[in-house]
Design goal:
The chain is mainly alpha-helical. It has seven helices and no strands. The longest helix is centred in the C-terminal third of the chain and has 23 residues, at about 95-119. The chain is globular.
Length: about 120
């Protein structure tokens, strides 16, 4: 895994896909969140190091640009806090090794797409 991408994905999940986000920002809906913030990009709460625009970029990448099996692994790993690792792996339909290989591949894809956007 790529440490910086791992940190960004943890913060993305917290900002857009947590229970706190559901109550404060309209269920993780980007439009509802922008409306709640009156269109201003502000730093996330609790000392977040990922700006909301980066969270929006990650949301777009995960939803539109990752292959389906990588999207499932990312969502399970970062957004599903109620399941055990073994349950997450079973849901993804792969072995433990394949689960972490897919997660690493997703990190590489996200990193390259974020770099391409920055260029």
């Amino acid at each position: 895994m790529i440490k910086r991408i791992d940190e960004m994905l943890k913060l993305w999940a917290e900002e857009l896909h947590s229970e706190r986000a559901a109550t404060e920002f309209g269920g993780g809906n980007m439009i509802a969140m922008l409306m709640a913030c009156k269109g201003e990009l502000i730093r996330g709460t609790r000392g977040s190091r990922v700006l909301l625009d980066e969270s929006a970029d990650i949301e777009l990448i995960v939803n539109k640009h990752l292959p389906a099996q990588l999207t499932v692994v990312v969502r399970e790993h970062y957004c599903n806090h109620d399941s055990l690792l073994s349950q997450k792996i079973t849901y993804c339909g792969c072995s433990r090794k394949a689960y972490y290989e897919r997660l690493h591949e997703a990190h590489e894809c996200i990193a390259s797409l974020l770099m391409a956007k920055a260029a």
